[in-house]
Every structure is written in C-alpha cells, then in structure tokens.
Amino acid sequence: QSVLTQPPSASGTPGQRVTISCSGSSSNIGGNSVSWYQQLPGTAPKLLIYSNNQRPSGVPDRFSGSKSGTSASLAISGLQSEDETTYYCATWDDSLTGLVFGGGTKLTVL
Amino acid sequence: QVQLVQSGAEVKKPGASVKVSCKASGYTFASYTLHWVRQAPGQRLEWMGWINVGDGSTKYSQRFQGRVIITRGTSASTAYLEVSSLRSEDTAVYYCARPQYCSGSSCSNWFDAWGQGTLVTVSS
C-alpha cells in the first residue's frame, strides 16, 4: 500500500479539465514539496510539476499543480488524447527518510 | 544535453545478484547525486536510494537496506546498483535518475533526467 494515495483511474473528454488528487500526511506532503510525473507505457517517467506548482521548461501550461495541507493535486486543462497515460505524485517522507511515490492514476481520454 | 544510459536487460535465478550500470553524460557528474527507482510490472514507482557521486556517500530506502548497494565508478561517469539475494518479487524495471538541481550537499527530490530503464527478470 502506497504512503501517498491517488485514485487508480480518472477520465475526461477532449477539451475538458480533469484533476488528479494525491493524499498524504504531515510527514510527507504536509512538510515537503510535491512533484508529478507522467509515464507513457514502456518509457521512463517525465517530470511534469516540481515544487508543488512549478513547470519545467517544455511542459505545456495546460498542466498545473497545487498543494494544500496534506494533499496535492494535478490539473490538466484542455484535455488532449495524448494525455491518456499514467500520472504519479512524489514527495519526501520525513518518517521513512526516503522518497515516496503515489500508486499512480491512469487517465483515460474518452 | 543530459543523458543517462543504462546497461541491458538481465535474467537471474532466485538467490543470485545483479549489477546494473548507469552512464551519465552532458553534465558534471560529481556535482549531483544519482538515484535508483524501480517499477515492478504494472506497479508503482519505488525509490531505492541514492549516491552522492562526489564523496561516495549513500542513502538507502529502509525497505532495501542491507540488500542493495549503490556505488560509483572510479572513472567514466558511471554509477552502479547491485541487488543481492534476488527473489521473484524483484522482477522489475530499474531506473537511474538525476535530481533537477544540486547545490552543495542539498539536492532536489525530483528528477528531470532518467535512464531508459533496465529490465531485471528473476526466474528459476
């Protein structure tokens, strides 16, 4: 069982806005920055969001992140077919003294 | 540009050990830590540990402590992950990853560069 909890699946139609949640605790999200990764099948994860809400260069501004208390969210606006893949949240856990990942959310574009 | 190139797929028997390499290029190798993350088939990403390439110090996930060793090469900008006492549950793709930034001994906990992954299959 993951320390960070994500819904296993999410869906939306093209052009829609979807949100993926990541729930943790005071020892992880509550006290540390959250990052988000996009992973296409058979490939390495790609950094989408870091420091809760910062986008690396090259990531479209359709992707945004936020954090409140012990939860974080990834929002994707203007949903496109190529967004259909799996998304992971991650942060440092002070109790485990290690990096932890969410269980992943598979996004389907209907 | 930053590149991490890993060694090829491995097939091992239960109880054996495996050593995976990660060769870095495009940046000053000694200025960053290097992390290892694995992913079992259909499962979540799982952080295993890191090495401070500059001084060779390491930090391991509690889950893998004692069974995993991360080392650096003496040259050629390469880091290694060795996993011992392999069992079927260790069948996974193993990735090396580099933090987005490191400033002195402080590095980000997110990664902007990843290796292509190395599939390790443990089967009798």
Q: What does the model show?
A:
The complex is a heterodimer of chains A (110) and B (124). Chain A has strands spanning 9-12, 18-23, 35-39, 46-49, 63-68, 71-76, 86-93, 98-101, 105-109. Chain A is an all-beta fold. In chain A, the strands form 2 sheets. In chain A, strands 1, 3, 4, 7, 8 and 9 form a 6-stranded mixed beta sheet that branches. Chain A has a 3-stranded antiparallel beta sheet with strand order 2-6-5, with no helix packed on it. Chain A is globular and about 40 Å long. The termini of chain B are far apart. Chain B has strands at 3-6, 10-12, 18-25, 33-39, 45-52, 58-60, 68-72, 78-83, 92-99, 102-103, 106-107, 111-114, 118-122. In chain B, the strands form 3 sheets. In chain B, strands 2, 4, 5, 6, 9, 12 and 13 form a 7-stranded mixed beta sheet that branches. Chains A and B meet through β3, β7 and β8 of A and β5 and β12 of B.
Oligomer: heterodimer
- Which class do the helix and strand fractions of chain A yield? mainly beta
Order of helices and strands of chain B, N to C?
EEEEEEEEEEEEE
User: Shape of chain A, please?
Assistant: globular
Using the CA coordinates, give the radius of gyration of chain B.
Answer: 14 Å
Q: Kindly state the percentage of residues in helix of chain A.
A: under 10%
Q: Biggest sheet of chain B, open or closed, and with what strands and sense?
A: 7 strands, mixed
Shape of chain B: globular
Number of helices of chain B: 0
Number of strands of chain B: 13
Query: On the 0-100 scale, what is the average pLDDT of chain B?
Result: 94
Beta-strand portion of chain B reads over 45%
Kindly list the characteristics that best describe this protein.
heterodimer; A: 110 residues; mainly beta; six-stranded mixed beta sheet; three-stranded antiparallel beta sheet; globular; B: 124 residues; seven-stranded mixed beta sheet; four-stranded antiparallel beta sheet; 0% helix
